[in-house]
Amino acid sequence: MKRCIAKWTKKDRVGYLFIFPAVLVLFVFTIIPLVISFIISLTNLDIFLAWPQFVGLDNFKRTLGDERVWNAFKNTFYYVVISVPIQLIVALVLAYWLYKPTRFNKMCRSVFYVPVLCSFTAIGILFNLILNSTVGYIPYLISLVYGEPIALLSEVKFAMPIIIFISVWKAFGKTLIILVAGINDIPSTYFEASEIDGATKTQQFFHITLPNLLPTINFTLLTTIIGAFQVFDVVYVTTGGGPLYKTETVVQYIYNRGFSAPYDLGYASAMCIELFFVIAVIILIFKGYMERKIARNM
After folding, report:
1. Average pLDDT over residues 211-218
2. Residues 6+ apart with CB under 8 A from 107
3. In 10 A of CB 288, how many CB atoms?
4. How many CA atoms lie within 13 A of 263 on its CB side?
5. Which of 166, 220, 232, 271 is the Cys-Cys partner for 251 at CB 3.0 to 4.6 Å?
6. What is the sign, positive or negative, of the torsion defined by CA atoms of 119, 138, 237, 270?
7. What would the mean pLDDT of 153-160 be, rounded to a whole number?
8. How far apart are CA 72 and CA 249, in angstroms?
9. More confident call, 275 vs 16
10. What are its GO cellular component terms (predicted)?
11. CB-based burial of residue 47 (10 Å sphere; 0-12 exposed, 13-18 middle, 19+ buried)?
């Protein structure tokens, strides 16, 4: 006991004091809701909170036979697999182009970051108007070529690509800023030595920038993947999950089941738990792979 007290130095106390608010927020708004969500998933609770009954794992069994659940997971995986690499590649290319602290580069970085500050709901409404077949400018331009406007958000082949474009356009600025910081953290002596050896800009990018940027890329990928699996607002505002459920994501379906008829919070909570474990497994596998790759490059 005395040894433990001796280790509890003033410096340690200050450190724990600083992280306490963050831990408290994490516990109150993440850990507790997750536990409550699991408890609700074992009941037939509805939104009216009327005498819930314990049903065990029935809600989880029902999700396995629900075609819309599988469709929602398929759409979500499609969104993640396409949007995350595009966002990273666009941000990485621009970061390598704009990392130097010139006035022009700073202005460009600020402009690219502006959409990040905007509400996804507002951006969704904006694109909904732009792509509207009646008043939208893009359908009007299409009508000049093809003779009639196309309701792009109502077309199965266009709806999800448009949602991916909107998401990438809004979010790549944050990834860009993080990657710029990572590039600027690489010692300039590496680049100077490679220039003396006659390395080209392309060789510097692939043999100096990328290997040293892997920890930053790892962080951005992990956070982007987690966010992409939880996509909701842009889908809800633009397509509502249509047409023919081709853009309905897991979170969208969770919302529809829990907060519209039949108001089945137990079923929606079961899907929340399933989504949590899917994200956790993917992140753990990806994190392990990236950490091994980073270790080999150290």
Report:
1. 92
2. none
3. 10
4. 7
5. 232
6. negative
7. 90
8. 5
9. 275
10. plasma membrane
11. middle
Question: Pick from 161, 159, 172: which is nearest to 84 by CA?
Answer: 172
Task: Give me the DSSP letters along 246-262.
Answer: TT--HHHHHHHHHHSTT
Torsion angles phi and psi, residue 155, rounded to 5: -95, 130
124 C-beta neighbours (distance < 10 Å), count: 21
Tell me the three state secondary structure of residue 43. Answer: strand
Q: Using an 8 Å Cβ cutoff, are 220 and 179 in contact?
A: yes
What's the mean per-residue pLDDT of the chain? 90
Sign of CA dihedral 124, 129, 130, 132: positive
Distance between CA atoms of residues 5 and 32, nearest Å: 30
Residue 139 has pLDDT above 80, yes or no: yes
Class of domain 59-297: mainly alpha
CA–CA separation, 114 and 254 (whole Å): 30
| Model confidence at 226: pLDDT above 90 | yes
Query: Is it the case that residue 248 has pLDDT exceeding 80?
Result: yes
Sequence ranges of the domains in the chain: 1-41, 59-297
Going by C-beta distance under 8 Å and a sequence separation of 6 or more, which residues neighbour residue 195? 204
197: which 2 tokens? 């050896």
- CA pair distance 45, 54, nearest whole angstrom: 9
Express as a percent the part of the chain with pLDDT over 70.
96
41-50 tens-digit pLDDT: 999 998 888 7
C-alpha Rg value of the chain to the nearest Å: 24
The token pair at 85 is 């690499």
Q: Which two tokens stand for residue 2?
A: 């005395």
pLDDT recorded at residue 252: 94
Q: What is the pLDDT of residue 6?
A: 54
CB of 119 within 8 A of CB of 127? no
* Single pTM value for the model: 0.90
In this model, does residue 70 exceed pLDDT 90? yes
